[in-house]
Amino acid sequence: KNPRRTLSASYKYDIEQLGESQNSFITDNILASLLRRSPNNQLTMVKEFKSIYEHEWFNGFSSTIGFINRNHYPLGETNFVFFENGLQKYNSTLITSELIFNTRFAFNEKFVFGEFERTSMGTKYPILELKYGYGKKDIFNSDYEYHRLQFGVNHWFNVSSIGWSKYLIEAGKIWGVLPYPLLKLHEGNETWVFDDFAFNMMNYYEFISDQYLSFYYTHHFEGLFFNKIPLLRKLKWREVASIRGLTGTLNEKNQQYNVAYLNEYNANSFMFQVNKPYFEAGVGIENILKIFRINAMWRLSYLDHPNILKFGIMGTMQLYF
After folding, report:
1. Helix (H, G, I), strand (E, B) or coil at 313
2. Strand ranges in 136-194 using DSSP code E only, listed in sequence order
3. How confident is the model at residue 234 (pLDDT cuts 50, 70, 90)?
4. Residues 115-131, buried b or exposed e (16+ Cβ, 10 A)?
């Protein structure tokens, strides 16, 4: 348990919303259905086998090696249509077999332990994470060979007497000619629930890249302004502000392979490249009844895209101390 060694295996056959963040509601959650702002019509059936070994070298520094085999099946009227050597190609399924190697470093990280699970209590130092995946063709009927590399930094810190800040930076690159479900579908959010790890004003499948850089910065003012107003000081409400940005590219080979889905080539399609940076920002109130946070969000770029939300009010629940 300390240092930690884990070996795990899992199998699932379930419907997924590709392009969701790791923090979003699972697709069959009742709240995810009730709080959606658009039809739930972009789902994919996924069959996945995964085996992972995690080795913690010392507290806060760990490495992971694993194998993932995934089958993607289109649902409803959706088809996988791609162009290879100028010829149209229909796929009834997409199969990948991927070896993963991850390293995570969080100096002086604290945990609460259970028998099998543990919860991170965080660290005051930046958390660094490096992820590498290698997809090999023809292993368990896999269709594609590729490499993917991702690096992330997550850090929170105090800002003198005016509160505390948190930032997330992520950069990644994918090598290989791949269909859009295997490229970087930037994390959107089509619910009214605020998600720290998603672009809350972005639709699912709206932006796609094979090379990208994203950032998220939020500042919690801890009552810096509200404490000057007697009623708000008594309620203990706190102010928060955030901004998120993204830039990315899609190489020419991937553009041609996915030409049926890119709006640049097909005006009826819904996917776009990040030809210029995408931005969104928001302000909010947290610590409402010690469990609620309400955010007002604005989309600052790509305002001409169809079926988008330029402004929205979103909420979330979390415990405040």
Report:
1. strand
2. 146-158, 164-175, 184-185
3. very high
4. eeeeeeeebeeebbbeb
Residue 221 CB contacts under 8 Å (≥ 6 apart), including other chains: 162, 163, 238, 239, 240, 241
Structure tokens at 246: 């993204």
Mean pLDDT computed over 149-164: 94
Checking if the pLDDT of 40 tops 80, the result is: no
- Single-letter code of the amino acid located at 98: E
What's residue 216's pLDDT? 97
CA distances from 154 to 125, 126, 200, 290 (A): 9, 6, 19, 25
Q: Per-residue pLDDT averaged across 214-228, rounded? A: 95
Tokens of 277: 């940076």
Structural contact between residues 306 and 272, judged by C-beta atoms closer than 8 angstroms: no
Provide the pLDDT for residue 113.
81
Instruction: Quote the CA–CA distance of 82 and 179 in Å, as a whole number.
Output: 7
* Percentage helix, strand, coil for the chain under 3-state DSSP, each rounded to 5: 5, 50, 40
Task: Provide the pLDDT confidence category of residue 269 given band limits of 50, 70 and 90.
Answer: confident
The token pair at 172 is 């990644």
Task: Indicate whether this model's pTM tops 0.85.
Answer: yes
Q: How far apart are CA 303 and CA 306, in angstroms?
A: 8
Give the gyration radius of the chain's Cα atoms.
Answer: 21
Q: What is the side-by-side order of every strand in the sheet holding 127-135?
A: 5-16, 44-58, 61-74, 94-106, 127-135, 146-158, 164-175, 211-220, 238-249, 278-288, 292-299, 311-317
* Paired sense of beta strands 311-317 and 146-158, if any: unpaired
